[in-house]
């Protein structure tokens, strides 16, 4: 993968691998989908939004697809699951509930799984018939692979039987390779957001607690440690968040100050 | 990524502040580990990161390196803003460090797209030395300032004005904010009823 950046700081399509023959309409769909993956900036402020768009682009890229879902793994468990259509959501919910299915297989062994007749699929004896009765008969499950880890899977479904041939599988794998990197980069951002958000909440909470400590020091003459201990005792006794107890102290002090001003 | 004592010390007061007796505690160190591990999966030469949050009463900085022995091996960096909380009065940034030139080009491109950042906000290779390790300021100076704000609130100042008042009083006294805050707290202790 090249790291070429255009003038606007994005990346051009060639970043995602070699360009297929644009004459073929299927490859044209792949180019569109890859371009879409590479231009998610205007549409994807959250991880779930990005993954949903990846699922939607997968439907464009893979001939025969009626819907797709993306599952992200975190520490070996399915963590984030999105879908391009309601029926995919139902299918993936069945898979999660049973602990059996093509996504689980693809994510656990890191290779593509395909079936053209889910109703009679021996690989997934419980999942297959249930999904077949829903009218979903074909699946193509593509692992999202980084060099040393499977970060999830893209699951593509079709109502018809034998919808995904070798060519569809090849196109799917071409699409999944750069999608894995984009998806994982989005995960990095999601982690960053989580850390920063908790640090900011922690700092805000700490600020309120420290203000309450200052108020208690003014009233009692004690130390900061003694004031903190008082707040913690109340928090544990009343089963309230420490920051919540502190906020009450600060708000009560502010009310008293307002009342003093009014009485002046 | 083992966290240094300095990083752990900086995180401890915040973890305490997040404590909710009705729920499991949020483990900030674990969140940091997961963040670093996720970054290392896409950037194999990842060496560490610095986080910086600026608030009205001070700066909270944290630098966590994968291995302190590799401080001189930084070949590339990626610096970007992460203003997360809508309407927040803090500005947050993260700086990543890696040992191989160009390692952050793809990550920068993807994050820039998702956050709709203009190119000048994504700075590649502009931070090739890490902040002084002692700059894990943690929240101690901020704590002191906020305790002093509490004193001012108790003395009748409105909470939203108290921070500005603290800065004004410190300037008038010719002291730094932290020095003045410490003096104010001592005064409050001595003069408590």
Using brief descriptors, characterize the structure shown.
A: 264 residues, alpha+beta, elongated, disordered N terminus, B: 193 residues, 5-stranded antiparallel β-sheet, 6 helices, 5 strands
- The residue ranges of chain B in which pLDDT falls below 50 over 5 or more consecutive positions are none
Q: What is the SS-derived class of chain A?
A: alpha+beta
Tertiary shape of chain A: elongated
Helicity of chain B, as a percent range: 40-55%
| Main β-sheet description of chain B | 5 strands, antiparallel
Strand composition percent of chain A: 5-15%
The rounded distance between the terminal residues' Cα atoms of chain B is: 50 Å
- Mean of residue pLDDT values of chain A: 82
Helix content of chain A: 55-70%
Integer-rounded radius of gyration of chain B = 20 Å
Order of helices and strands of chain B: HHEEEEHEHHH
According to DSSP, the number of beta strands of chain A is 5
Give the largest interface. Answer: A-B, 76 and 77 residues
So what's the overall shape of chain B?
Answer: elongated
Number of helices of chain B: 6
Cα end-to-end separation of chain A? 72 Å
Reconstruct the topology from this structure.
The complex is a heterodimer of chains A (264) and B (193).
Chain A: H1 25-37, H2 47-61, E1 67-74, E2 77-83, H3 86-98, H4 102-109, E3 113-115, H5 127-133, E4 138-146, E5 149-158, H6 166-220, H7 224-238, H8 242-263
Helix pairs in contact in A: 1-2, 1-6, 2-6, 6-7, 6-8, 7-8
Chain B: H1 5-17, H2 28-42, E1 46-55, E2 58-65, E3 76-81, E4 91-98, H3 105-115, E5 123-124, H4 140-154, H5 159-173, H6 177-190
Antiparallel strand pairs in B: 1-2, 1-4, 3-4, 3-5
Helix pairs in contact in B: 4-5, 4-6, 5-6
Task: Explain how this protein is built.
The complex is a heterodimer of chains A (264) and B (193). Chain A is α+β, with helices and mostly antiparallel strands. Helices cover 56% and strands 14% of the residues of chain A. Chain A is built from eight helices and five strands. Chain A has helices at residues 25-37, 47-61, 86-98, 102-109, 127-133, 166-220, 224-238, 242-263; strands spanning 67-74, 77-83, 113-115, 138-146, 149-158. In chain A, strands 2-1-5-4-3 form a five-stranded antiparallel sheet, sandwiched between helices. In chain A, helix 2 runs antiparallel to helix 6 (166-220) and helix 6 packs across helix 7. Chain A is elongated. Chain B has helices spanning 5-17, 28-42, 105-115, 140-154, 159-173, 177-190; strands at residues 46-55, 58-65, 76-81, 91-98, 123-124. Chain B contains six helices and five strands; from the N terminus they run ααββββαβααα. With 193 residues, chain B is an alpha+beta fold. The interface between A and B is large, with 76 and 77 residues.
